[in-house]
């Protein structure tokens, strides 16, 4: 086997499809978000405005979050020193889990090292716990949920995105007594649309299913205390398992589920992705807890965030850009071609100091490549104007160049 060529060929195929990923080397400076320092390939350093961060509210730099992390490091050092079962559970983890259970008004919460692992480990473990399980998964669920459903080794039914009539058809056709889990998201991260929470809860009641809701792009951002769309819509008690991240609106890192005590105890006892890995560093748990508690009482930030997103959409539409319909803070601008998408992104960065990562297949379907903009309360009107002026300057030129490159 020529291993070298196999690896090189794999990358060549990715490149040929225009979806080879290049990381922007960025340094966020505390207090300056959304401005960051970008180091170019030839080692030069420039200030850029970041338009694609999932630290949606800039919480990762909020003094109370940063100070609680520093204090935790000063008090207890760096790592947790073990898995949660073997010496790695600290007061910080326990208190953060309490804070998250309170946020979602559930008996318990359980921390994982990321939202990805929370989804993958929990969904896979449901398959072990519920013999004969049938999993009903929205077709646009995140990769971590897809991996979890695969890992559950159970029967699965994929329902068309947000199509509750299709979901009902599939539920009605399944054996009445089989255990069922409906897995879906509240805010879909690439289109910015919202799942039909209430209708899914109604179907879950009718067909005796559990509901599993990924609120990764909603926690911190929706609801009076930031518990997500289920809180906003008064449905928290009807969602059996809520999954979230500490790495996006909360600005730190880690993932979790919140649910009733029996569910959490079973996942805690059986999920390899929880059991066999080192616990989060205490400082991350301290920072995340500070952030969660802060946002419970900072509804004004959520309002500012919504205002920024709405006015960016209005401004881009008025300037003639194809903003995709979005019900949320996510502002996707459709480009529809991977090469063009990357070119626009490169030119915005090189020529205007505007950083927005191109979103290509497989993150989104081919032909729907886009710029995914995520304005925060810290993006000013002047930054909005600068963005639109920069798009006006590069869009046509990039289209011509991409046409030449492809032709
Ligand atoms: N679910 C969804 C819908 C996501 O978009 C992501 C991250 N992109 C995750 C889960 C994983 O969360 P984390 O980044 O905390 O691993």
From TrEMBL:
SUPFAM superfamilies: PLP-dependent transferases. GO terms for biological process: protoporphyrinogen IX biosynthetic process. CDD domains: KBL_like (cd06454). Keywords: Acyltransferase, Heme biosynthesis, Pyridoxal phosphate, Transferase. Pathway: Porphyrin-containing compound metabolism; protoporphyrin-IX biosynthesis; 5-aminolevulinate from glycine: step 1/1. InterPro entries: 4pyrrol_synth_NH2levulA_synth, Aminotrans_II_pyridoxalP_BS, Aminotransferase_I/II_large, AON_synthase_class-II, PyrdxlP-dep_Trfase, PyrdxlP-dep_Trfase_major, PyrdxlP-dep_Trfase_small. It catalyses: succinyl-CoA + glycine + H(+) = 5-aminolevulinate + CO2 + CoA. Pfam families: Aminotran_1_2. GO terms for molecular function: 5-aminolevulinate synthase activity; pyridoxal phosphate binding. Gene3D superfamilies: Aspartate Aminotransferase, domain 1, Type I PLP-dependent aspartate aminotransferase-like (Major domain). Residues 47-391 form the Aminotransferase class I/classII large domain. Its EC number is 2.3.1.37. Signal peptide: none annotated. The keyword Ribosomal protein does not apply. It is an enzyme of class 2 (transferase). Its cofactor is pyridoxal 5'-phosphate. Belongs to the class-II pyridoxal-phosphate-dependent aminotransferase family. Homodimer. This is 5-aminolevulinate synthase. The lineage of its organism: Bacteria, Pseudomonadati, Pseudomonadota, Alphaproteobacteria, Maricaulales.
């Amino acid at each position: 086997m020529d291993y070298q060529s196999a690896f090189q060929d794999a990358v060549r195929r990715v490149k040929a499809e225009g979806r080879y990923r290049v990381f922007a080397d960025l340094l966020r400076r505390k207090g300056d978000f959304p401005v960051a320092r970008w180091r170019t390939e030839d080692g030069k350093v420039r200030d850029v405005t970041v338009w694609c961060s999932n630290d949606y509210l800039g919480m990762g730099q909020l003094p109370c979050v940063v100070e609680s992390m520093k204090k935790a490091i000063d008090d207890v050092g760096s790592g947790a020193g073990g898995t949660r079962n073997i010496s790695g559970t600290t007061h910080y983890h326990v208190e953060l889990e309490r804070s998250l259970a309170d946020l979602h008004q559930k008996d318990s919460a359980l921390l994982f090292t990321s939202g990805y692992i929370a989804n993958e480990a929990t969904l896979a473990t449901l398959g072990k716990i519920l013999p004969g399980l049938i999993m009903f998964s929205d077709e646009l669920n995140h990769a971590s949920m897809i991996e979890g459903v695969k890992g559950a080794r159970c029967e699965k039914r994929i329902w068309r995105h947000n199509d509750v009539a299709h979901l009902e058809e599939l539920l009605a056709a399944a054996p009445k007594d089989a255990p069922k889990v409906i897995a879906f998201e509240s805010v879909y991260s690439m289109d910015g649309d919202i799942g039909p929470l209430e209708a899914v809860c109604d179907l879950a009641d009718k067909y005796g299913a559990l509901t599993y809701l990924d609120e990764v792009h909603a926690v911190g951002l929706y609801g009076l205390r930031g518990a997500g769309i289920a809180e906003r819509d008064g449905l928290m008690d009807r969602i059996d398992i809520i999954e979230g991240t500490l790495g996006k609106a909360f600005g730190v890192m880690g993932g979790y589920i919140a649910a009733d005590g029996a569910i959490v105890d079973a996942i805690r006892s059986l999920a390899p992705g929880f059991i066999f890995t080192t616990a989060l560093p205490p400082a991350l748990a301290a920072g995340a807890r500070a952030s969660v508690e802060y946002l419970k009482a900072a509804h004004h930030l959520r309002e500012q965030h919504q205002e920024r997103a709405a006015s960016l959409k209005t401004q881009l539409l008025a300037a003639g850009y194809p903003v995709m319909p979005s019900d949320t803070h996510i502002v996707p601008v459709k480009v529809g071609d991977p090469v063009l998408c990357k070119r626009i992104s490169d030119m915005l960065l090189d020529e205007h100091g505007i950083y927005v990562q191109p979103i290509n297949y497989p993150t989104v379907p081919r032909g729907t490549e886009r710029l995914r903009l995520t304005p925060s309360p810290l993006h000013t009107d002047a930054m909005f104007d600068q963005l639109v002026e920069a798009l006006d300057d590069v869009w046509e030129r990039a289209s011509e160049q991409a046409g030449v490159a492809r032709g």
